[in-house]
Amino acid sequence: MGYADGESSDPVAAMIRESSSPEVQRAFAEGVFDIDVEPLLGKVKAPTLVLHRRQTRYPIALAQQLASEIGDARLVLLEGASSIMALEDSAAVAQAIEEFLGEAEHTPATRELPEGMAVMIFADIVESTSLTEQLGDAAFREKARELDEGLRKIVYDTDGRPVEGKLLGDGVLSIFSSAKNAIDAALRFGEAADLVGLQLHLGIHAGDVIREEDNVFGGAVNIAARISSESEAGEVLVSQTVRDLARTSAGVKFDDRGERELKGVGEPVRLYAVKGAG
User: Fold this and answer.
1) What pTM was computed for the model?
2) What residue numbers bound the domain in which 80 lies?
C-alpha cells in the first residue's frame, strides 16, 4: 500500500485483523485485481478527477489510459509512492481536489455546447509526431495531458467550453461566445504550453456551428483548424471575421498576414496575427 514505516502501518494492520478474517481479506484482495472496469469507463458522464502518484508501482500510462477513456476526466500527477492518497502529502491531494471543484464553479450552468454563432479556438501541438519519437510515447503523452489540464482551466476561466467529443489527433477545440475572450484564452494557451516545454499552433475563427451531443460540426470548425495549421509555433492567427469582432475590445494589435488559400475552403481567407497588448 506504500506505507513508509511500521509505525504508520501497524495500526492499520491491527484494524484489518480485528475487522476481518484472513479468508475475507484474501477474497477482497483478489477481487480488487480481478474486476475489470474498463468497459464501464465510457459510461461515466460526470466530470472526473483522476489522481496518480509518479513513484507508485503502478505505471503512469495506466492512469493516462483510465483518464482518456472517461469522457470528461482530468488527470493530476502527484509526487510520492503510495497508491493510497491519504498516506502522503495530503495537502497536495486537497489542493488538487479544490482546484478541480473550483473549475466546476466556472463551468456554465448548462454543460451543453452552443449552437449557431460561436467563436472557436483550434490548438494543435507543434511537431507532435517528432516529439513522440524523441521523448517516447509515454513521456510525450504525460506532457500533453499536463498541458491539456492547463488549457481546460484557462477555457473555463475565460467563459469558454471545451469540445469533448471532437477527435482531432493532438488538437484541442474550444468554443466561446466572445471574440475577446477567445483571444485572451489563446494568448494564455501559449503561456501554458511554454510552462510544460511544448508549443502550439493556434487558430481562431467565428461562424455558425451545429451541435450534436458533445460535438460540434460545420464549415467554421474546419476553417479554425486550417487557420491553426497556417500559424507559426506559438503564434495566434485569427480570421478577418474575428479581427473585426474584437478590433476595439480585445486590447491587442493585429498584424495583417494577407489572404491565404486554405485547404477545403472555397475562397481565400484573410488572416491576422495577434501581436499582444495594443
Assistant:
1) 0.59
2) 36-106
